[in-house]
Amino acid sequence: MRRVSDNETKNKDVRVLIYSHDTFGLGHLRRCLTIAHSLVDQNKDMSVIILTGSPIIGSFNFRARVDFVRIPGVIKLRSGDYTPLSLLIDIDETLAMRDSIIQHTADIFDPDIFIVDKEPLGLRGEVHKTLKMLKERGTHLVLGLRDIMDDPVHLIPEWERKKAVPALRDLYDSIWVYGLPQICDPLEGIELPKSVRRKMTYTGYLHRTLPHGTPAHWTLQKIEPPYLLVTTGGGGDGEEVIDWVLRAYENDKALPNPALLVLGPFMHSDRQAEFIHRANKLPNVEAITFDAQIEHLMARAIGVVAMGGYNTFCEILSFDKRAVIVPRTQPRMEQYIRAKRAEELGLSSMLTDDGVRDWKGMATALRQLPQQALPSDVVVPGLMDGLENLNRLVNHAVEKVRKADRERGGERTDRSGNGNSRSRLRVAGRKPR
Known about the structure:
2 domains; six-stranded parallel β-sheet; 15 strands; globular; Rossmann fold; 433 residues; 16% strand
């Protein structure tokens, strides 16, 4: 078997594995899917696998060279405890299966880059063994963080308990923050060694576009675009916001814009039924449960009411929509911090949930929405450059991995195992294919 040239190894057969933290809502999965699609769009020889326990992963469209491995689902209860999503087995057994599937997938797929979303060691340490295995092989290990994690008062003890900082110091090669430092430092207050700080790169936010493929054709019975889009993401904790908007429309018949409510797949079915029933009674409000291509709905909206999760915030900025953000403050302050900073910068407005949720307050916010500035009226350098920068970072990391392959010597046959002449030099410790 001949040695391959630098040009042949530079971009051929690149593999990226992404671990999606998936115990609550849609946010982590949608962020990982956005990254995966951008990577394969810009790199014709790249394949990406997403590891996830999300029960609705199959509802999304996957582009060529992106696939997923479904691990047993786990859900985080409002108490903070974890439980199997659907299996009638012990949580420890579920975690053991997840750990095993993750490790075996990584072993066989043998990625050039492993991106871990949010949790440095995964749910209860389930990716720790995989990280150590891939570290020995020379895989480039990346921790991907959203712009804001939580209030430091809560994040510091959580990360101490999870032994996150030693993992950043000893295992990870890079930390990519999908935001900007002038908006927030997600690790503010955590005592990090300088060596860890040097691993951090702020990419900017992840720009969204209309998805490939045919959008779902919801037949709107009563309203037409442009409408006010009301979305709470996965919907698992969005009941109060939906109820608040509905009460505004029920009590103020003269609100100027029709509303389309997207309830979310994780909202309790009883509440979904209640909200749809109430919307059906209103002439200018419609409700649907879920659309995996919500970007198409947002593109036709005159404005947005949302809770301010990371993905919805990116979509608001990408499609340049005026927005009222109603952030949650439990169990994390993430949405509140993001909404507050966005309001300070003039990117959106914020309506604080005071627990009373007077319909008049919501109605006033909805009436004032058309007078807000557009996000594009505010100049924040590099704000939406995240995907462009991520592709640059990935290509640089792949070059480093391939250079290490060549320097450490040894040969590896074609990854496909079909005996073709193309080969890759292997890092010591990697098994030849």
